[in-house]
Amino acid sequence: MSRRPTAAQRSQGIPEATIARLPVYLRVLYSCAEQGIATVSSEELAAAAGVNSAKLRKDLSHLGSYGTRGVGYDVDYLVYQVSRELGLTQDWPVAIVGAGNLGRALANYGGFASRGFRIAAVLDVDPDVIGTEVADGLVVVSAEATEEVVARHGVSIGVIATPATAAQDVCDRLVAAGVTSILSFAPVTLTVPAGVDVRKVELSIELQILAFHAQRRSVVRVTPDGSPYPGGVGLSALAAGVAAGEPAATALASGVAAGESAVTAP
């Protein structure tokens, strides 16, 4: 007689790609619950999450959730299943190191508490900042007390919101204090020992990726005097210019044919 796998056994076999999508599913499910939706089909959930329904069903099967044919998934129960798999059915004390603009914004974000993340402490090295209140009832403490803060609050996750030059030292101190999960906003690669998980959020990289795709979608059209070519950047306008025998349009079309992303007419 076969047994259904336990949550721990399932977690060990869940692909990383699936784990990365679970928070997205959970966000959609919370939205459904807030709207009073009791059940949701795999197609509806997949569309809202930006994946195909087959992938979603396979992802959720790793959790032991298969839905009901013709009915779909029970929203409340699926919220529980996904939350349990992500470890959100318990309290996670978080310490933020760095009380600058980013650190303060994170400390004041209300969405953490509703997901099981409690900001237990905010630390900094600046004497002018230490002792100031950054959020309701949350006062900045000295980073020199990192070990004490981690032990007193049972901190599970450390958030690094410091300049890049200080990030590695902050990381080393958090790890030495017993923190094994770190979220870093610093634009630098951190070195950690085995058994420590680091997630990196680097906004500048995301913006650069967006800039790349924006550039690929558009073609800069410039006339001989350096002003934007009339008619915009659309291909229909380009074709019209070529048909009319306009030199700038013809030069631009040649550049596009050659694969150039930006063209200056001679």
Helix and strand element order: HHEHHEHEHEEEHEHEEHEHHE
CATH domain fold name of the largest domain: Rossmann fold
- Which CATH-level-2 architecture of the largest domain? 3-Layer(aba) Sandwich
Radius of gyration: 26 Å
> What's the oligomerization state?
single chain
**Which CATH first-tier class of the largest domain would you pick?**
Alpha Beta
Question: What's a quick, concise take on this entry?
Answer:
This protein has 266 residues and is an alpha/beta fold. The chain has helices at 7-12, 16-34, 42-49, 53-61, 75-85, 101-107, 146-153, 164-176, 203-217, 235-243, 247-257; strands spanning 39-40, 73-74, 92-97, 117-124, 133-135, 138-142, 157-160, 181-184, 197-200, 220-222, 262-264.
Structure in words:
The protein is 44% helix and 17% strand. The protein has 266 residues and is α/β, with parallel strands linked by helices. The strands form 3 sheets. Strands 5-6-4-3-7-8-9 form a 7-stranded mixed β-sheet, sandwiched between helices. The protein is globular, with a radius of gyration of 26 Å. It starts with 6 loop residues before the first helix and ends with a strand. The model is unreliable at 1-11 and 258-266 (pLDDT under 50).
Topology (elements, then pairings):
Blueprint: H1 7-12, H2 16-34, E1 39-40, H3 42-49, H4 53-61, E2 73-74, H5 75-85, E3 92-97, H6 101-107, E4 117-124, E5 133-135, E6 138-142, H7 146-153, E7 157-160, H8 164-176, E8 181-184, E9 197-200, H9 203-217, E10 220-222, H10 235-243, H11 247-257, E11 262-264
Parallel strand pairs: 3-4, 3-7, 4-6, 7-8, 8-9, 10-11
Antiparallel strand pairs: 1-2, 5-6
